Amino acid sequence: MNRIRHFFLHANRVQMCLLFFIVCVVVPFVGPIVMISATRSAAGIPREQILGNGLLAVFTEVVLLVWLWSIGSFVCSMVPPDLRPRESFFRVAIICPLVFTFAWLALFVSKNSWPIAVAVVAGIFAFFCLLYDVNFVARTLYLAEKGEPPMMGEISGTVLQLWFFPVGAWFIQPRVNQLYDERGRSGHSAKRRRH
């Protein structure tokens, strides 16, 4: 996991935008076309095709959540201890949208179905968990950069950039890279002082 985290923290803006373009544009559009052309059944949509499309959606969600987790956990470790938010709910909120997506996909492929109220409530909860994740990352990024809590509205631009991540990565990633480089330089200088 350290290599994946290192990639998401060290990658430049072009690499991240290219990754998100592939994950959010190429895979969702090319994948279903390939699956449709591979299955020449005229009798409805085969279960394998539904599963394949669902797994492509899960892949997109995993990339987004790993990016948010990498940034959130890293910048939280850089926040001064007296300002540092607790990460416990952030960790749970990162996992919940993914669990909901897998559960939804499994139930959609099988012939079982949730009561509509349960599906709607679970979907709304997963959506609010994703909103919390984006807000947590924006807030901790601000705290790591400025060393003080944000005033009302100061992180709204960062929240929007994280929410529209394929484009927002162009603006967010240089900030993360700078903090990551600073942590690397301070880590090396601390090691030199010990020797």
SSE inventory with pairings:
Blueprint: H1 2-10, H2 13-38, H3 47-78, H4 88-109, H5 116-146, H6 156-163, H7 165-194
Helix pairs in contact: 1-3, 2-3, 2-7, 3-4, 3-5, 3-7, 4-5, 5-6, 6-7
Give an account of the 3D structure.
The chain is an all-alpha fold and 195 residues long. The chain has one domain (2-165). The protein has helices at residues 2-10, 13-38, 47-78, 88-109, 116-146, 156-163, 165-194. The radius of gyration is 20 Å and the shape is globular.
* Percentage of residues in strands: under 5%
* Total discrete domains: 1
What structural category arises from helix and sheet content?
mainly alpha
Give the rounded overall mean pLDDT. Answer: 83
Tally of separate helices: 7
Total count of strands: 0
Q: CA-to-CA gap between the ends?
A: 29 Å
Q: Using the CA coordinates, give the radius of gyration.
A: 20 Å
Low-confidence segments: 188-195
- The dominant shape is globular
| Helix content percent band | over 70%
Order of helices and strands: HHHHHHH
Report the sheet with the most strands, covering strand number, pairing sense and barrel closure: none
